[in-house]
Amino acid sequence: MAVTVKELAAALSAEAWGDISQTVTGAAEPARAGPGQIALAMSPEYAKALKPGGVAIIAKGMEPGDYGLSAAIFAPRPRLVMAGLTRSFDPGPSIAPGIHETAVIADDAQISEGAAIGPFVVIGAGAVIGARARIASHASIGRGAKIGDDALILEGARIMQGVRAGARLIVHPGAVIGADGFSFVTPEESGVEEIRRTLGRRETIRRQSWERIHSLGHVEIGDDVEIGANTTIDRGTIRATSIGRGTKIDNLAHLGHNVAVGADCLICGQVGIAGSSRIGDRVVLAGQCGVSDNIEIGDDVIAGGASKIFSRVAAGKVVLGNPATAMDTQMQIQKAMRRLPRLSAQLEEIRSSLKDLPGKS
């Protein structure tokens, strides 16, 4: 795809400089940018590697002439410009229009106008595929599932029976949406229930077997949701597991049964959210965060990487650590822990000196 610098600047709502009639076909880092590529140099440090005569996206306040550029685009907010730039040059997956001859589609499934169905796709009875949806090879859509308009379901994704998804859903390879929840019960009080009640004290230990609680609910997904590769979202036990509009979920995350995630959340890689927890709007859970079951996280909470959340977090809080506490408190805890060896040595010195006081043996 070739665009002029002028066209690209207009698409990015940014100001252009120099010979804006030049065409570019892709983007690269400054040291690797070749003919026809626009370099991304949005700080003076990166700009040191720019090549004379090249084209670059630079930050406002930088002087393109200082780097010998022939054309430039000024980025008022670099990360936002990156979003627009990558969107401009991303060709997307190759999914041929129409329905591939190897696809297996139930007679009563509804395939809307403009949908593209790739090789070896399986679509179950009563499923509904929205207009212009694209489903890549080896994906499967279960019985009664409903996929909204302009969805993109990539290779090997599994959308199980009864899942309901809004418009512009993106599901990356290997994700599984709507598998049964991990719900089991014992005929008598289980060891897990016992230690919750006693806070860890074991009264009796007996042989137990687990009875499966079947998942009768489904998964509901709002518009503009993205779900990463190999992420798993379990269906609800009775009510639905739900993902709010605009939420983005990274690779290898797991959401348990009955979890409710609000709108515009960011759930990063390897996050685990246990069953029946409720996550508010605009929450950010950084990589490897863990959320215990049946708790509530309020709107606009930010949890730092590897935080372990065992109790309710009020709206707007920033938490970190294991167990998660307010970030400033956690930093004080970490500083205190680093001092422990020195404090221990000082305490030992004091104890030793006390032994030498008169009257001490």
Description:
It is flat and about 90 Å long. The model has no long low-confidence stretch (mean pLDDT 94). It is 17% helix and 27% strand. The chain has 5 helices and 40 strands. With 361 residues, the protein is α/β, with parallel strands linked by helices. The strands form 7 sheets. Strands 8-11-14-17-20-25-28-31-34-37-39-40 form a 12-stranded mixed β-sheet.
Largest sheet: 12 strands, mixed
pLDDT below 50 for ≥5 consecutive residues: which ranges? none
Query: End-to-end span in angstroms?
Result: 88 Å
Task: Please report the number of helical segments.
Answer: 5
DSSP strand content: 25-35%
Helix content: 10-25%
Total beta strand runs: 40
Strand order of the largest sheet: 8-11-14-17-20-25-28-31-34-37-39-40
| Radius of gyration computed on alpha carbons | 28 Å
Coarse morphology: flat
Give me some keywords for this one.
single chain; 361 residues; alpha/beta; 12-stranded mixed β-sheet; 10-stranded parallel β-sheet; 5 helices; flat
